[in-house]
Amino acid sequence: MKIIQNSESKDLTKKEKHSLFLLGLIFILGCFYVLGNKTEASFEKLTPEQSQILISHMTDNKLSQFFENLNLKASSVLILDSSLEENIYTKDIEKIMPLASLVKIMTTIVAIENIDQDEIVKIPKESLSLAGDNGLLVDEKWGRDEFLRFMLITSSNDATRAISMHVGKKNGLENEKQSTDFFVELMNKKAADLGLSNTYFLNESGLDLEDGKNGGYSNVKEIVTLFEYAIKNYPDIFYSTSFQSKNFTSNSLISHEALNTNPYTNLISGISASKTGFTNISGGNLIVSFVTPENKTIIAGVLGSTFTDRFTDIEKLSNTTLKIINEVQ
Fold first, then answer.
1. What is the DSSP string of 101-159?
2. 261-270: per-residue pLDDT in tens?
């Protein structure tokens, strides 16, 4: 049936006008159905490229509305689709903030890259003087990887000092201060090597210093980049932080029950890694990674929240992100 005549004929028959009207009505209703009902069924025929164009359009024009209504307490926020290297949501990502125990992400990286896997780390007496007690004993011996897993999940400050002193001694330094200064230099060098120009460290633990400074500073953009580097290169080490608790046995056959400083890991669907940070200076920080049912890795980070609200901030961000991703698949 011919709906539209060629350019030389200006008049349509009544039957042709009726057919054209029906076709236009069907097209309009179809558009409303797709745009107004972004369900899985609506998009099942879209190619991956078309789906990505759609979510990119949403990111530019609509996604911020979903997140800005969450009543987040954090000063800086970033949600990164690590699989695509694209930001899903950002808030003040260039703002330099104190990191607190997020510093231990870099501590772990530097330890792995400067301690051989088969080396034994022995706990020196001097390392047990920092704030917090995670049950480590003088002269207790640990394998490198298990010790790093224990350090991350408990956010042990004693463990970070033992690591820095081990690396210092390995490089001919016997003095505690010399060893820690040397280790912090390695941390800052690694930050520079990774292009993290706004990231720097003053100690290996993230504890507040007596002069009113914190042990490390960065912005949420760069700390998410560092966390992404860590979980891509050392996923087995950081995976331990996805559990609420874990049992460890040191090489000295001493058992330790380690409780995660993030007690809400079970609230994040598909969580694969997590790191907390809190001091009086920094407020509440938290960064997590999780894997979607479509095998996308998402990283969400918040800086400058409160001790409690950092957990609810991340829960809201991750749940909202999953909902949006599911709607456009």
1. GGHHHHHHHHHHHHS-TT-EEE--GGGGGSS------TT-EEEHHHHHHHHHHHT-HHH
2. 999 999 999 9
